[in-house]
Amino acid sequence: MRITTISVKSSTKRVMEKAKKVYEMRVKKRVSWDEFLLSLLSSHKTVIKDIDILELNESEAELLKNLLRKGRESWRERV
User: Fold this and answer.
1) Nearest alpha-carbon partner for 67 in 59, 77, 78
2) In a domain, 4, yes or no
3) Residue 51's domain spans which residues?
4) What is the pLDDT of residues 7-39, one digit of tens each?
5) What is the C-alpha to C-alpha distance for residues 53 and 63, in angstroms, rounded to an integer?
6) CA-CA distance, 13 to 20, in Å (whole number)?
């Protein structure tokens, strides 16, 4: 097996560690990073639901995208 590394910001690593701990509590066992990431990527479930992650339905997501697009246009005008 070939082992590689990935680089992430410290803040991202803290979020990932918190998500892994939540997952381990949910499955009631310690898991490796490989097991955690594979379960996260292979499941259709939200493994990290207990962490404050915004989940939107389709119409809410479209509304947020439109608001961001309009906001960015006004930001460009001010710069």
Assistant:
1) 59
2) no
3) 10-78
4) 888 888 888 888 888 889 989 999 998 888 888
5) 17
6) 10
